[in-house]
Design brief:
This protein is mainly α and about 50 residues long. The chain is built from 1 helix and no strands. The termini are far apart. The relative contact order is 0.08.
Length: about 50
């Protein structure tokens, strides 16, 4: 391995480490919205027996 390859590997590692390898910028916000289905419907729930 010659010096040019070492310098190229270091440059690529720094490039990726600094976050330049992402395709799109995400805001970091997760939105969880309730989605009614047959699995979480009120009529489908079971009541506990005393």
């Amino acid at each position: 391995m010659n010096n040019k390859e070492v310098y190229a590997a270091i440059a690529m590692a720094l490039h990726e480490h600094l976050g330049n390898n992402v395709h799109d910028v995400e805001p970091g916000i997760i939105t969880i919205a309730q989605h009614p289905t047959q699995w979480n419907g009120y009529a489908q729930t079971m009541t506990a027996h005393p």
